[in-house]
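In the laboratory, one determines a bound structure by crystallizing the protein with its ligand and collecting diffraction data. In a computational setting the workflow is compressed into a single prediction: the sequence and the ligand go in, and a structural description comes out. We illustrate the idea with beta-D-glucopyranose.
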Amino acid sequence: MNKIFSFIFLLTAFMASQGHAQRKAIEQRVDSVMKLMTLPEKIGQLNQYSGREVTGPSSDRKNYLLNDIKNGMVGSMLNVKGVKDTREIQAIALQSRLKIPLLFSLDVIHGYKTVFPIPLAESASWDLSIIRKSAEVAAEESAASGIHWTFAPMVDIARDPRWGRVMEGAGEDTYLGSQIARARVLGFQGDKLGSVDRIMACAKHFAAYGASMAGRDYNPVDMSRQQLHEIYLPPFKAATDAGVATFMNSFNTLNGIPATGNSYLQRDILKKQWNYKGFVVSDWASIKEMTPWGFAKNLSEAAEKAIIAGSDMDMESEAYKKELEKLVNNGKVDVKIIDEAVKRILYKKFELGLFDNPYRFSDEKREQKVMNDPKYKEVAKSAAQRSIVLLKNANNTLPLSKATNNIALIGPLVNAKRDQAGSWVVYADTANMVSVYEGVKQKVKAAKLNVVEGTAITDTSTAGFKDAVNAAKNADAVVMVLGENWDMSGEAKSRTDISLPGKQEELFNAVKATGKPVIVVLMAGRPLVFNSIVEEADAIVYAWFLGDQGGNAIADVLFGDYNPSGKLPISFPRNVGQIPIFYNFYNTGRPVTKPTDIRYKSAYIDAPNDPQYAFGHGLSYTTFSYSDLKLSSTNPQKNENVKVSFKLTNTGKVIGEEVAQLYMQDTFASVVRPVKELKDFAKVTLKPGESKEITFELTPEKLSFYHEEKGWMIEPGEFRLMIGTASNDIKLKTSFELK
Ligand code: BGC
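The predicted complex, in structure-token form:
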């Protein structure tokens, strides 16, 4: 045993020293380039342009950009993609005096050529291996197309479904969000940067952007340090620990200071406390936007504040390019600050191997081979299946029999390929998406499918209802596909009303009035409010925007070829008035203990406190039982790990996957603690009758909380543990007393 330990120890020490030696070697190369650089050339490395115009038809802007690239005034381009274009633009950069290669970056958010489910959907899978795999495929495809760097993952915690960008993240929970952040970073980058089929990731938007006031994009954020450290920062820390190459700051202010000009965030926390070695890119024009915020009186002051606060690269403000040289010459910015930023960027260019071969990623043969690889479709299908959440299934309405003869497919999203792709589709051919209609047709070839739109997504007319009702009357099964269009979520797509747009809920009511059982498939980039459907539909399948293979995955679920396993990564409110709503709330001094008694309690007089569908909720075609709970210690020491194990059994008739969830409550502490917090989870596949023992581990880190003055701390006392199938469906309970 001792021999094994000493071997592992030596191996780890050897690997660490190798890593150290490699770092030193790259640093030396960076220094040797730095010595050759003039101040304008250094500043050029901090400048990032969007290349939409640079490859297009001739224009003044195009000439301006090309000229800057040729003169070494640009470090990176976003929005240039494809081997042909990246090669062409790189060749121009190599005409510059020092021939420093460009970094090509792009928003590869949920796939490049192959479109995966939107990130929020994929997070509903709680399946870290498929999440990692989909990021790997996105990296393979985009790397083969000359891209070095994606602006993903977005790791912003979001508790407000009005905010359109909830679609881009992992939902409301810090623990789940941190695990997913790690999986995505490792998927994009691999274990070590520099492989030709992986790309640099970017943890964004640093920080607290998901808490934009009132769910309105680009709005301010006011938040206690305790909330910031406990809820919003951990996914960024997880990305850092996973080796994320870059960070992006955010559009919002944090307690009055724009994130882009925020030293506390970028210098104190990221670069000092976390010892982060990558670089920070600003968000699009966020440096110059500090002027309309009223934080910098002009572009010069914006550049000064941003660089001093630790924003290394300027995306599309041209603030650094136009102002930094003057700021150094008049003594307002120390050249050392600029050197530090440049070094961080050059380091990544070396790590990617671009100084050795600037065209490494731009290989035509590889591009042709990688794009359209059929094996990626399988990954996309698996991700889409796992992202689907079965919200309701009264009387086992689902799955449908494959012998069903006559199926009415009703609603505006039955054949809506573009919508199904969701926001942030940068390259894919959306005509190739498999729609619900195509998926069902493929699945039940002999059935007669009657497709009726009934109403368009944002229609105000009910003229199409009649046909829809007739189709339902004549059908053996009725499936309605309703929801938002792709452009109602994403950046700058905040809504004050998150109910189904247009006349869709009325269409549902009309169809339901036929008396036929109605199955509703909902597509959206956020949680929606759909109260009559909750009450009246026989089954509800939440399908978000599932990308390429959406229709096949939905058909698999409808006809039982895939047993749904997704769980909500975000609470679904009953109405917008409940927002922000999340499962890990505080008890208050006046909690509602009996829903019938709300007088002078922390309650609403017109709606319950609890959500329509809770965080962690999601049904299956089988049933699971939880039993045999064991705890490694009921009286552990402060530095001891506590193990909780239990038996999970598939008690139903079909194979299924369950996401077992561990919640914890620190009952009394010097900072009020939430009623429960997710601390671990496991996604487990079980055959009918099969059992597995599952063990969760609570580390001291998981027991700690953030105190405004004292920082992270852990206190003795009672900790309650709850294991369940959803945050509101706890199956086993226990507790321990920390010494
Ligand atoms: C978004 C970023 C994105 C950038 C570049 C900004 O508007 O906030 O998330 O990466 O544009 O496209």
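The longest strand covers residues 656-666. Keep in mind that any predicted model is a hypothesis to be tested, not a measurement.
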